[in-house]
User: What shape does this take?
Amino acid sequence: MSYADEYRSKLTSPEDAVKIVKNGDWVELGTAMGHSYALDKALANRKDELKDIKIRSTLSLKEHEIWKQDPNGETFTFNSWYFGGTDRKNHDKGLVNCIPMLFRNEPLLYRKCLYNEVDVAMIRVTSMNKHGYFNFHCAVAATAAQCEMAKKIIVEVNPKLPWAMGGSEECIHISKVDFIVEAESPVETLAPAIPTEVEKKIAQFVVDEIVDGSCIQLGIGGMPNTVGTLLAESDLKDLGCQTEMMVDAYYHLYMAGKLTNKFKGIDKGKSTYTFSMGSPFLYEWIDNNPGLAAYASNYINNPYNIAMNDNMVSINNCLEVDLFGQVSSESSGTRQISGTGGQLDFATGAFMSRGGKSILCCRSSYIDKQGVLQSRIIPTLSTGSIVTVPRSQTHIIVTEYGKADLAGRSTWERTERLISIAHPDKRDELIKEAETMNIWRKTNKRV
Assistant: This one.
C-alpha cells in the first residue's frame, strides 16, 4: 500500500476519531501549537456520554472546548505541565491542575513513569510529506514520547503549519498513526510586548554581560525578547542559539547578521530549540530551514548539552527573590502562575559552561492593588511560593538598579548584594529584616 493509500484508509471525521476515547482514559493534547481544534471540539461534545477523562497538556494558547462544554469539570480533569494565560485563568476556576516537572525530564517521565497511562494522543501536525512523515512543527518538546507511549494516536492535519527540520523526534510516520483528521485552524501568534523604560534598563545590564561568540537562551516573556532586540542592535557578533523556545528575537538577530552559531560546541552552525511561538515571519523562517534544528526537550534542556557551548548565557524572568537567593518564577504564594519549565535546566547548564552565566531578571518592585509599593526582593519567599531555582544554583540576579552575582557567596554577602539592587525605598526595611534573620553583618555596606 502506498503512503497516499494508507492516508486515505486512516482519514476520518473528528467525531468518529474521538470515539476511541473511553471512560477513564488519559488523553494527551501535546504542547502549545500542537493542540488540536476539531478533535478538541469533538471530544468536548461527548461530555455527557463519558466519565472520568483525564487530560494532559502543556502551555495552552487558547480556550479549549473541553472547558467551555464542561465548566464544572464533571467529565474532564485537565492537567498541565506548564501554564499559559488561559491555563492560569482556568486554574483559578478550579479547572486546571499543575503537574510539576523539569522540562528536560518530560519525555523521560512518559517513558519511565507514565508508559502505561497514555491511552489516546490527539496531536495537531503538518501535512504528510512524500516519505509518509508528519511534522510536529513548533511543538516538538515531548510530543514524540507521548505518541510513543500512546495506545492510540490521532493526528489533526493543518497544512498551514511550518515544517521544523530536526534535530530528533520532530516527526511521526503514518505507520504509527491510527486516525487522521483534516482541519485547518489558526496558527497562533505571540505579539511582541512593547518594553517599558524599566525593562530596557534591565535588558541593558544583561547585554553588558554578553561577549562575542556567546550562545544565548531566551526564556518566555517580554524581558528576554527585549534583551534579544538589544543584542540585534549591539556591536556583538557570532552569537549562537540553544533555547527551549524559539522567539522573534532570534530572527532579528539572524537578520542583523549576529546569529551565526559559529562557536557553538554542539550543533555548530545551527540554531536549536524545542518549541516555538512568535510572529508569522518567525514561522516562515522556521519552515524547512536547515539552519534551524528542533529537538525533544530532553536534548535541548539537558544541562550537559547546554554546557558544551562556551559562554552560554541563559536569560529568564522571575517573580520573587528572597535574601537567601531562593528564586520563585512560577507561583505567587499558592497561586500557580506558570511552571518550572526549563528555567532550572538552563540555570544549571549555563553555569556549568566555560565562561557561562545564568541570569534571572525581575523588576525591583511593583504596586499592589491597594496602591502600595511592594518589593520583589523580599526577606523570605511568600508562604506557599514554589522555589524554582534553589539558592545553591542561583547565579546573577538583575533589576533596574543593577546586578547581584550570588554564586559562591555567603548569606550575608548575598543579602548585601541583593539589597543593593532592591528599590531604594525598600532597602532600610530589608536591612532591618536581615538583622532580625541574623544574615546582616554589622560591617555590611549601608546601601
